[in-house]
Amino acid sequence: MFEGDFKAFWAWHDLGSFLTALGIFTVFWSVVTYFMINNSYYVEGIGLVALLTEATLGLPQLVRNFQRKSTTGMSIPMVLAWLAGDLAKTAYFVAKSSPKQFWLCAIIQITIDCLILGQVFAYRKNTNAELPFSNSGSPDDAGGITNESNVETDVD
């Protein structure tokens, strides 16, 4: 099912391997939760992990934009929709006097949204930056996928 470098963990080669890993993960954590459900530290910990996971969903996009120094292909309305949703959620948390960890995670989400919007403006002139999976000259960079603009051709 999984062999080699952990960086390739999410590079599934077939649906069966993914479903097997997902099944093992689900069964394992279901059993652990069954036995730990009365432990308040465990329940609070699971809740915090869930909140932090949701709060950092935009982080890979933020990092990828920074690495490429480009937001080519990003939809500004989509990021604005993220921001609007996160602002509405935060307002709900404040209005309902939700626990502080909800506020903290909402602030993290809003911060990431604003940073991505800042990247849209900061990198707006970098429209020709390389997209992911394009070949930048190294065969290891893209796993053998080539960008046609980098391929030399003989045309008479």
Automatic annotation (TrEMBL):
Cellular component, GO annotation: cytosol; endosome; membrane; trans-Golgi network
Annotated stretches, region: Disordered: 134-156
UniProt keyword Ribonucleoprotein, yes or no: no
Gene Ontology biological process terms, A to Z: phospholipid translocation; retrograde transport, endosome to Golgi
Naturally occurring in which organism (per UniProt): Caenorhabditis angaria
Membrane-spanning parts: 12-35, 41-63, 75-95, 101-123
Key words of the record: Membrane, Transmembrane, Transmembrane helix
Topology term for the membrane: Multi-pass membrane protein
Localization (cell): Membrane
Domain of life of the organism encoding this protein: Eukaryota
Name the record gives this protein: PQ-loop repeat-containing protein 1
